Amino acid sequence: MLNPAIAQSVIDHALSLGANFAELFIEKHRTSSIDTLSDKVKSVDSGIDFGIGLRIVFGSKVLYGYTNQTDADSLKKIASNLSSRDLRERVNEFISFDYRKMSDHHPAKIVLSKNAAIDSKVEYLLKADAAARAVSESISQTRGYCMQREQEIEIFNSEGLHTGDTRNYIRSGLTSIASDGTEQATGGWNDGGLLGWELSDSMDPVYTGEEASRQALVNLSAKPCPSGKMPVVIGNGFGGVIFHEACGHLLETTSVAKKASVFHDQMGEMIASEVVNAVDDGTMNNEWGSINIDDEGMETQRTQLITNGKLTSFLVDRMGSEKTGYERTGSGRRQSYRYAPASRMRNTFIEAGDSEIDDMISSIDKGIYASHMGGGSVQPGTGEFNFAVTEGYYVEDGKIQYPVKSATLISTGPEVLKEISMVGKDFALACGMCGSVSGSIPTTVGQPALKVDTILVGGNA
Amino acid sequence: MTQQISETLSTASEQVFSRAKAAGAEADLIVLEGESLSLKANEGELEEHTVSNTQTFGVRVIKDDKVGIAYSEASDAESLQWMVDQALQNATYSAVEPDEKILEYQQSLRSDDAIFYPEDTGTVDEKIEMVLELEKGLVSKDRIKSSPYNGVAESSSSRYIFSSAGLNAASRSRMVYAYAYALAEEGEKNAMEGTGQMFRLTKELSIPTLIDEVADLSLNMLDGKPVPSKHYDVIFDRECQVELFSVFSMVLSGKAAKDGINPWREKIGEQVADSRLQYWDKPLLMDGFGYSLFDDEGTAAADTPFVVDGVFQNMMHNSVTAKHFGVKTSGHASRGARSTLGVGYHQLVIGEGTAAAAELNAGEYIEVTSMAGLHSGANPISGDFSLGVSGFLCRDGQRVQPVRGITVAGNFYKMLNQIQCIGDEQFWNWERSALMPSIRFADIAISGE
Question: Are residues B129 and B145 located together in one domain of the fold?
């Protein structure tokens, strides 16, 4: 996308100003989205983002600029402006680019630049809507969406790296709204991956619609949730957001390097119950959070974060490695050319254990079964996190009693990881978006069902 | 000083409309331009220095009562032509929307640069000194271990709206801001809190004040612990209260009402809140950063009463939702370069009540100063919320215990009928997006010990 001669002249210019390291990140990003409301196509829109991010490093200081301009003069001007307070004699020589074509582990067939497949997507969404509204007359509305993206990236750096990749993202889902005339409740279902619209081969629009409506109707009939500390069984798939928030963010060197993570000095220590094994894996074929290379041009990896409760690795990007001394893990990620990269999660999950979910529920005297979860957030410095239950049930005497309204669960990472007493067999992954210092990126969460012996449930009963 | 439209932009808009008209479509074009500078410090050094300069074009075409949207970050003639063609193609898939038209505005509109885009003599070097002072000042405080998140930044943005009917509108604004979070530690205890300042000019920033505020917030929370689970009266501080009203602003949306998901869609003229609640949008308050002279269709913005004496009066409308409900547009059209036509408020305002501090702060209550998980723990369609919060247990206006590790839960729309009293003084939040008095809500579920 950028002439290597221009890239060379800009990077060499940055080095001539005394930079230790310089990098160009070029991005062309096609997008297409379709929104439906009930049985109508609400909107179809599309576009192309294009820009270049220039990162210059002086010691531990990161200078970053971005622009839509592609000419050498504009890019050099950014380099000069950014470096004007750090000028010094050249410390590194330019190394000629050695283009490296990385293997593509995430092939895609129906991609945006060749076939937006709008008719097929509309058909899928309208079938899901019909299935959703056929469930009950109480389903008052549905909202569907299909978002497809094709992100081409190219990276040059002063160490001679020249590489690139094309990432095809697809995500589709439906929200059902149930109403009894006075109150409204919602339910939803979505799927996605790092592939093209061939994802539809593995999705059933009838299931999507019926599942969204089932959740909405359950929530419409839900009673206020009890509050206080109690045992909670967290369902598989998106339930993995608990690990994402309680631990994953705290293992990113973005926080670790600043000692702004409660785990920054815990490498090799037991930080979780010994039944917990956790992984962040960027290599899983066609998974939503996968990548071939990270946004610093490094081939991505599978990273074993926790083994039998013991902390075994952080998630490390280039600057994190410089500051902490840990090896890079191919975890440098960013939303777009508008952000400098930072260490981020990819597909993050707790591995399967050997417990049955029925045994988990039957072990509860009074507590909650959170079968579906929403998003969450964490304060890395203190480890305080929260995540939302979107479908939950009150459990008493080992049996599910009735559905409860949505509630937030809160704790701290160090506490909750030690409260996980049972890990199930029913492993599943689910896709989501993760927001942090380098923007909003696709990440996968996952886990089998697991039991947390005690956590604060924020009910309103 | 008045904003001028460059020849490049004029040419671009002519190209876009020429292409659209040739295809038998009417169109409007939004162009967003932005410049920014962001500085962060760590361990006494400048850690990050980011600059940007971007431009985005977004077109909306309407042909045969169907609407299509497309955008481009490239401004060359070929890219703009591609953008219009994409929008035309997208329109063929959309449902017929007879109410959506390009409005017949032919005027030129400009905001006042002297007020909203004042010349700032503050230099980059001054801002670097400020961010270094901010971080250094925080870590020099007793028990403040670090300031993991901090920054001094400035941004300026320009918004242009052109239409094939002849609209030619431009506005721009500038802001500078500083923010910081401080990690406090004492033995096994820790806490991290933060806040910020936002102004038009660099010289208005007060770094020493910000250092003291952030340090106090974090240090005050060090001894925080849960309170017993029960129902309390709750006052959300000026930041949290604005966040809550913003998250649940769907009830004001004419678009959500047209789409059948706004829970207040059939409640115009009905009592929806305590009779003392006065809830407005006031886009022309010049002290706020949400000031708007016109909306994204070019309609003049004006004060809109949403709730008067607790009775729901008006929703936010653009021209499409207004036609649907048989009313006039309220000047709340909202559209980004990448998005379809929606509605959005400018500056939320709640009228002051009658409660003096003594009444507002009488007896026991929880003051919420920080909320987490608003994006996931609040459902605007149902009104239900459950959030992790921290703050203070207070008695008679005195903070008697810092509180953390608790949740607050309820239904926001029902909570508007659980107002104990409304304070007699209004405050801007630090981002200066809303002007509200403190509201004391009664009998709210708190989960703790």
Answer: yes
Is B179 within a domain? yes
Beta carbons of A408 and A387 less than 8 angstroms apart: yes
- Quick one: average pLDDT of B117-134? 94
What's the whole-number mean pLDDT along residues A51-78? 93
Pairing outcome for strands B333-334 and A428-436: unpaired
Per-residue model confidence as pLDDT tens digits over B388-410: 999 999 999 999 999 999 999 99
Half-sphere exposure of A252 (CA within 13 A, CB side): 25
Helix-strand-coil split of chain B, %, nearest 5: 25, 40, 35
Which of B35, B49, B404 has the highest number of chain A CBs within 10 A, making it the mutation to test binding with A? B49
Do residue B240 and residue B368 come from a single domain? yes
Q: Are strands A439-447 and A347-350 parallel, antiparallel or unpaired?
A: parallel
Model confidence pLDDT, tens digit, residues B232-241: 999 999 999 9
What residues of chain B lie within 8 A of the CB of A384, using their CB? 372, 388, 404-405
Residues B383 and B404 occupy one common structural domain: yes
Whether the CB-CB separation of B416 and B273 falls below 8 Å is answered with: yes
Residues B28 and B142 placed together within one structural domain of the fold: yes
Best B80, B265, B379, B417 residue to mutate vs chain A (most A CBs within 10 Å): B379
For residue A198, tell me if it sits in a domain: no
Helix (H, G, I), strand (E, B) or coil at A77: helix
Torsion of the alpha carbons at B370, B375, B380 and B386, rounded to the nearest 10? -50
Distance CA B149, CA A24 (A): 25
For chain B, how many structural domains are there in total? 2
Residue A298 pLDDT > 70: yes
Nearest-angstrom CA–CA distance, B207 and B134? 6
Domains held by chain A: number: 1
Of A382, A386, A388, the CB nearest to B190: A382
Task: End-to-end CA distance of chain B: give it in Å, rounded.
Answer: 59
In a domain, B30, yes or no: yes
pTM, two decimals, is 0.90
pLDDT digits (tens, 9 = 90+) for A165-214: 999 999 999 999 999 988 999 999 999 999 999 999 999 999 999 999 99
Q: Does residue A109 lie within any of the structural domains?
A: no
Q: How far apart are CA A231 and CA A453, in angstroms?
A: 4
| Structure tokens, B7 | 């020849």
Domain that holds residue B66: 7-219
pLDDT band, very low/low/confident/very high, at B2 (cuts 50, 70, 90): low
A423 domain-assigned: yes
E strand intervals along A135-247: 139-157, 161-179, 184-193, 228-234
Q: How many CB atoms lie within 10 A of CB A252?
A: 25
High-pLDDT (> 90) share of chain B, %: 89
Distance (Å, rounded) from C-alpha A219 to C-alpha A406? 8
* Subunit contact B73:A42, Cβ cutoff 8 A: no
**B400 burial level (CB within 10 Å; 0-12, 13-18, 19+):** exposed
| Least confident piece of the model among A249-253, A257-261, B336-340 | A257-261
